[in-house]
Amino acid sequence: MRDYLSHEVRNVAVMGHSGSGKTAVLEAMLYFTKASDRFGKTSEGSSLIDYDSEEIRRGISVYTSLVPIEWKECKINFIDTPGYLDFAGEAEAGLAAADNALIVVNARDVIQSGTKIAWERASARKLPTIFFINKLDEEHTSFEQAYEQLRETFGKSVIPFEVPIVENGEIIGSVNVLRDKAWYYKGPLADPDKAQPVPDDMVDAVNGYKDQIAEAVAMGDDELMEKFFSGESFTEAELTRGVRLGVRNGEIRPVFSGSALQSIGIERLMDLIIKYFPAYGESGNYAAYDENGEELLLETNEKENLSAQVFKTIADPFVGKLSLIKVISGVLTPATPLFNANADKPEKAAGIFMVRGKKQIPVGMLCAGDIGALSKLQYTSTGDSLCEIGKIVQYDNIDFPAPQISLAVYAKKAGEEDKVFSGLARLCEEMPDVIVAKDPMTTETLISGQGELELEIVRQKLQSKFGAEAVFKDPKIAYRESIRKTIQVQGRHKKQSGGHGQFGDVWIEFSPAEPGTDFEFVDAVVGGAVPRNFIPSVEKGLRENLVKGVLAGFPMTGLRAKLYDGSYHPVDSSEMAFKTAARIAYKQCINANPVLLEPIMHVEISVPDEYMGDIMGDLNKRRGRILGMEQSDGKQLIIAEVPQAEMFKYATDLRSMTQAKGAFKMNFERYEEVPQAIAGKIIEAHKADLADDEE
To answer: What three-state secondary structure class fits 674?
Structure first.
């Protein structure tokens, strides 16, 4: 593969619902362009793109893959993104390197949740977009019906550019709408180099589609608009120019169709991408920041200073770390001295590669716009910016989605904790949306990600790549205890066993603290009843015992302790004696109407209108309180407060209830008293766990 310049490169994210055939489309392109000697299939484990053991075992794309394809003196860097929502982080990584989007849809089930999500992601980034209606060779499929669903859902910018010719339920050719010409793949008229007239029964439909294109073209150009409304026809050159402009600004989203498995429409699709998607060099300027944080604009060409961004990291215990990069400006060669602007450290790559699936092909250079990989970078992580030493350039970090689910992680075998957590640290480099952190409230180590499937794959990968076995469990709830009654109690510690004795005596008033206060200690001793040097010991003794409540052993919170009296012995009193006396006093909080508290989460759920009733009913079942509703980005935003104990695996439940069209985020709000009936069960279960631990 030769070196390609910025005006010869197209970077295309391939998106769509899981199962729509994204990977199959790319496998067909690889086979058609002879970049592969076989047509790989994910379901058979022969895919060049989905090569990971988890992808083969599950028959779905799990990771973002690079698929560079040479076509007609251009290079198309396809970025195959997973359609399954559990791998949204992988999709975001791929989109960070994309300049255009190809959305693949299933002809039998066009408007799936993944289709809408792909559209939203592409639209949010203002990516020029092409639709490919796949699987038209299957029974009970219709191009017209599929197209109408796309147009009805996504608007008038969705316009067919190529229409299949169907005879007896079989695709035998296609009509190019712009050129008013037909090409046949099968039958007596089959000749890839010879165009034929449009079939008579398709003339009206094709003319209608051409009018749609002409109208869309006119909207983006004043001169063409005037010509359109005067009734004049556009020349082919005017149409081509107008379409390129319309695709670039989002006013035109071409629709193509075919069958990946039958290689129908694949050649024409690649032609369309080359012809109408803007080359990287046409993107103009790219916003970045200098070493002082001041904004600067870099030209997207080879003459500019070198800058690049890492959008994905692959961690391999044998090969080492591979950093996938997009060169944003300039030229990268093996001799280029690199500098990591985020880590503020120089870097040196062991090699520059082009990546195609699992193949790593050494290259001599990467020019502006091109995508490749650097091996064995020491300080570089996903999202980091690379530049030349002395010419600092830094880009915004990639915005990965917030975790939706958390599980507690333990080593399966005692003594393998270091092995497990070092392996997880390596995998988090590879999957930045997966976060491993210790919960300060429960002291458990939690692993958080987009869904149960993603976390299960992390567990499997931890075992297969690093030989470490982990167990994932539901995390503990950070319950707390508090009191609702004011009491005055004595804590008296006296021990005499020959020699030096121990004596400490305190009177303490325990009462509920002000809201938001964990613990408040008040020194109200007068007259030296408790010597000043022993009062800190009383406070320390109380604080040490707060970690274990009097009701069920959960940490105590919201407690006010006022030391107002006591007594001491001039010889036998000590700091330890007063700490013990404080502990004795604290245990009497069992008489202060102790209660169990649970964390309450602030939850915001975004769903389409049609799912409102189901979501609100479900929240009520989860002991939630609806605080309000409002419109947000065309969806309903439900704001509620829900106990944390009711929100485990909510990501899975929400997807099920909304056909994956809902999203949520939540954060800790406050503690509230647990209803008595539920509290009793929690207390008994916790006491049983403590008993098991002691055994």
So the answer is: coil
Burial of 91 (0-12, 13-18, 19+ CB in 10 A): buried
CATH of the domain at 316: 2.40.30.10
Question: What are the φ/ψ torsions at residue 672 (nearest 5 degrees)?
Answer: -140, 155
Spell out where 412-533 has E strands.
435-438, 445-449, 470-473, 480-483, 487-495, 502-512, 519-523
| 355-392 residue pLDDT tens | 887 788 889 899 999 999 998 898 999 999 999 988 89
Report the amino acid identity of residue 232.
E
The structure tokens listed for 102 are 């190809």
**Cα–Cα dist 189/268, whole Å:** 18
Q: Which DSSP symbol is given to 545?
A: H
Residue 642 identity (one-letter amino acid): V
Regarding whether 542 and 652 lie in a shared domain, the answer is: no
Closest Cα partner for 638 from 661, 617, 659, 612? 612
DSSP 3-state percent helix, strand, coil across the chain (nearest 5): 30, 30, 35
State whether residue 92 is helix, strand or coil: helix
pLDDT digits (tens, 9 = 90+) for 423-449: 999 888 888 899 999 988 888 999 999
Domain span at residue 621 reads 596-677
d(CA 459, CA 462) in angstroms, rounded, equals 5
> Cα separations (Å) of 12 from 9, 65, 250, 361?
10, 12, 15, 20
How many other CB atoms are there within 10 angstroms of residue 694's CB atom? Answer: 6
Please give the Cα distance from 196 to 187 (Å, whole number): 13
Residue 679: what are its φ and ψ, rounded to 5°?
A: -60, -40
Q: Say how many domains are in the chain.
A: 5
